[in-house]
Amino acid sequence: MLLKKKICCIITARKNSKGLPNKNLKKINGKPLIYYPIKAALKSKYIDKVFFNSDSIEMIKKAKSFGATVNFIRPKSLSNSNTKSADVLINHINRENL
């Protein structure tokens, strides 16, 4: 909580990367890439809730095991290489009623 306001973090990760396929599941020091932003957000004294947003079932399972909240799978219409992050975040905020 910051200034008496609840703060949430939305971490986004798309399944199909053009440059490095499955980059978000690649291991660095024995942990998948998505592990690090999730754990950093969970450790923050300012963040009250950590959401994870993806179109990948495998990433969602891992994100949940790391402590992130996942309530839905990202729609395919928001999972393209040209999709704007803002559109993904707006969709997430609307679906979670944040």
What fraction of the residues are assigned to beta strands by DSSP? 15-25%
Widest sheet: strand ordering: 1-4
Structural class: alpha+beta
Q: Based on DSSP secondary structure assignment, what is the total number of beta strands?
A: 4
Structural Rg:
14 Å
Chart the SSEs and their pairings.
Elements: E1 8-13, E2 27-28, E3 31-32, H1 35-43, E4 49-54, H2 57-66, H3 85-96
Parallel strand pairs: 1-4
Antiparallel strand pairs: 2-3
Descriptive notes:
The protein has 98 residues and is of the alpha+beta class. It is 32% helix and 16% strand. The chain has a two-stranded parallel sheet. A two-stranded antiparallel sheet has the order 2-3.
Brief sketch in words of this structure:
The chain has 98 residues and is α+β, with helices and mostly antiparallel strands.
Notable characteristics:
98 residues, 16% strand, two-stranded antiparallel ribbon, 3 helices, alpha+beta, two-stranded parallel sheet, 4 strands, globular
